Amino acid sequence: MYHQRVFPLLMLALFLTALPAAADPDPGTHIYLPLAAGGNACIPGTGENYGTLDPLPPPTDPPAELHADLNLSLRGYTPTGGYLGLVDYGGAADPGAPQLGGLFTDGRAPAFAGLYRVTDWDWSCNCRAGPVASPAVTLVDLAATPGEPVLLPPSGYAIGSGYAALVLYAAPDRITLKYTREDNVVSGYTLHLEGLCVAPELLALYSQADAAGRALLPALRAGQLIGRTGDALGVAIRDNGAFLDPRSRKDWWQGY
């Protein structure tokens, strides 16, 4: 187990450099790795107070920044075509599923600005494989005005002490949130947000907790500020580790 990180940025750079060229799922396309939100989308500080909660052991291994289930930049994603609107799937719906309308303060209906396929991961070689086969869309861009607050979407679940989700990974331009107490994506809902400016206080708290061995991780309440948007907000959502379609009306946009 890794209880401390040694030169984490160097390790990440070496890891990415070592990825074999053959891991590119399609030589005719490229892996889309968005840059941090720029311009004035970020503010120096939010004044927000963030708490922590002890996750269920064990801590993630390998470290979160080197784990393709937590750091989505290791996988990447490729643009794809499809319907830029809500999609109606059959089957049962979970009334407690996270509701993505809560990402923005006005709770508006989604305006999809881009569709993507998240890259699958081959754990035998710890390298990229082809795009996730199903569903056809596994990440979307939600249109946004730069600088809009991004909030934690509500769900019908709680993880203790009034909190709704743990921060499993955070970087300046992306964050991974888990709606259970485990330090992994194996069970329950996981939400990946891309291309936002993560609140500096939240990012600092995560970095401190991660460096200290992850005995505590930042915890968020439903509706609490996560950060601010760039030109669009990338969203991917998973259940029990599987990537699902963020456009699904019955799952993530109930009532729209």
What can you tell me about this protein's structure?
It contains 3 helices and 12 strands; from the N terminus they run αβββββββββαβββα. With 256 residues, the chain is mainly beta. The chain has one domain. It is globular, with a radius of gyration of 17 Å. The termini are far apart. The model is unreliable at 1-40 (pLDDT under 50).
Q: What's the arrangement of secondary structure elements?
A:
Layout: H1 8-18, E1 51-53, E2 77-79, E3 112-122, E4 127-131, E5 139-143, E6 149-151, E7 165-171, E8 174-178, E9 189-198, H2 200-211, E10 217-220, E11 225-239, E12 242-244, H3 249-252
Antiparallel strand pairs: 1-10, 2-3, 3-4, 3-5, 5-11, 6-11, 7-8, 7-10, 8-9, 9-11, 11-12
List keywords for this structure.
11% helix, 256 residues, 3 helices
Summary of the model, kept short:
11% of the residues lie in helices and 29% in strands.
Number of helices: 3
Order of helices and strands: HEEEEEEEEEHEEEH
Termini Cα gap: 44 Å
DSSP strand content: 25-35%
- Uncertain runs: 1-40
Average pLDDT: 87
Shape: globular
Helix % is: 10-25%
By secondary-structure content and strand pairing, the structural class works out as mainly beta
| CA-based gyration radius | 17 Å
Largest sheet: 12 strands, antiparallel
| Overall structural domain count | 1
Number of DSSP E strands:
12
